Amino acid sequence: MANSKQLIAMIRSHASGDEERFFAVADHIVSDSRKAGHHRMADEIAKLVGELRAETSERRASSRPTLIAAPRGELTSLVRASYPDTRLSDVVLADDVETRLRRIVREHRERQILADMGLQPRRKILLSGPPGTGKTLTAAAIAGELGLPLFTVLLDGVITKYMGETAAKLRIVFDAMQQARGVYFFDEVDALATRRGAENDIGEARRMLNSFLQFLDEDSSGSLILAATNHHELLDRAIFRRFEATVQYALPPPDHVRRILTQHLPQFDLAEVEWNKISAAAEGLSQAEIVAAADDAARDAVLESKGILTNAILLRAIGERIHLKL
Ligand SMILES: Nc1ncnc2c1ncn2[C@@H]1O[C@H](COP(=O)(O)OP(=O)(O)OP(=O)(O)O)[C@@H](O)[C@H]1O
Ligand SMILES: [Mg+2]
After folding, report:
1. CA atoms lying within 13 Å on the CB side of residue 19
2. Radius of gyration over alpha carbons of the chain, in Å?
3. Closest residue CA from atom 26 of ligand 1
4. Other Cβ atoms closer than 10 A to 136
5. What band does 314 get if pLDDT is binned at 50, 70 and 90?
6. What are residue 74's phi and psi, to 5 degrees?
7. Pairwise CA distance, residues 226 & 39, whole Å
8. Full set of structural domains in the chain with CATH
9. What b-and-e string marks burial along 37-64, b requiring 16 or more CB atoms within 10 Å of the CB?
10. Nearest listed ligand to the Cα of residue 130
């Protein structure tokens, strides 16, 4: 039988449109029902879930844009396309950051209303902060919220050592923005836009930065341009002016540790967890490291403790992640 935690997790995941989590919890209810000997109920739910899954994957397949769904020609070495199902509710964010991101998403959903008044949604957004705090996840979530493809720009393919070639490759990417509306994500943008005059600034680095700035200026596509960096301080000042919003990411405060763990362990009863101790132990870990600790703890709970996730298991998993950093 489903327990109340599972029901709540299910309702939450449904409300936030998080289909993957919805199905994960449903699968757990099926297996719990079987374990409890409620075979007819388990069969019935399993059948229903199977049908829903088939419907969902059909719907997703048919809603995908076909226009350069798969990049062609030279573009294949410059961008990687994906169609994330991620939502903003999957990203645990500071309230003000979440509000700002939701406003930007809304501007795109309602861009026709803005256009009627001669306005445009903000399209160029810079995400900065330490590793593992949710920048890449946010890019996926914005694409997911808007039902747009995510085109991750492969900077290894874009940046070459040959004179002028980087600019030519950048042009191909910026032309694609015009032709296929999507979220174009420049991860580790510092590789492209370090400060002018920094040491090692052979002429080509400056040329590359200048062409990036120029393409950003000229771009008038309907696409979103997201850029992420761990090294805000290394970016050329001129870059900041080109972005219409900057969003700062940070390591999680104690209440986010709890939210991330709860979100990632919907199949476990966490009523006995001593959150103060857990949050204190997790200080200094990034959101990504906390997710990794949650996965470790889940495996240990299943294999070592009959599926019961104890405070001690969680503490150990977190301790091991802290140890890895030292
Ligand atoms: N704010 C968050 N909320 C929930 N999960 C998160 C968050 N940040 C990170 N994660 C988890 O960690 C994984 C890696 O995070 P992500 O790739 O977004 O980090 P990043 O900020 O892009 O790091 P990097 O600077 O190293 O690229 C995510 O897929 C997700 O599972
Ligand atoms: Mg990243």
Report:
1. 14
2. 23
3. 131
4. 19
5. very high
6. -65, -25
7. 49
8. 1-63 (no CATH), 73-248 (3.40.50.300), 251-326 (1.10.8.60)
9. eeeebbeebbeebeeeeeeeeeeeeeee
10. 1
| pLDDT score for 135 | 98
Q: Which has the higher per-residue pLDDT, 123 or 51? A: 123
pTM value? 0.80
**Residues with C-beta less than 6 Å from any ligand 1 atom:** 91-93, 131-137, 228, 230, 249, 260, 287-288, 291
Residue 265: which of 60, 45, 1, 8 has the closest Cα? 8
Identity at 7, one-letter amino acid code: L
In the β-sheet with 245-248, what is the strand arrangement from edge to edge? 79-82, 150-153, 183-186, 224-229, 124-128, 245-248
Query: At residue 66, does pLDDT exceed 50?
Result: no
Judge contact between 284 and 251, C-beta under 8 A: yes
Q: What are phi and psi of 278, to 5 degrees?
A: -65, -45
Lowest model confidence (mean pLDDT) among 63-77, 98-112, 114-128: 63-77
Position with higher pLDDT, 288 vs 234: 288
Tell me the one-letter amino acid at 236. Answer: D
Query: Closest ligand 1 atom to the C-alpha of 249?
Result: 21
* Coil, helix or strand at residue 153: strand
**Paired tokens of 69:** 């769904």
Nearest to 257 by CA among 223, 300, 293: 293
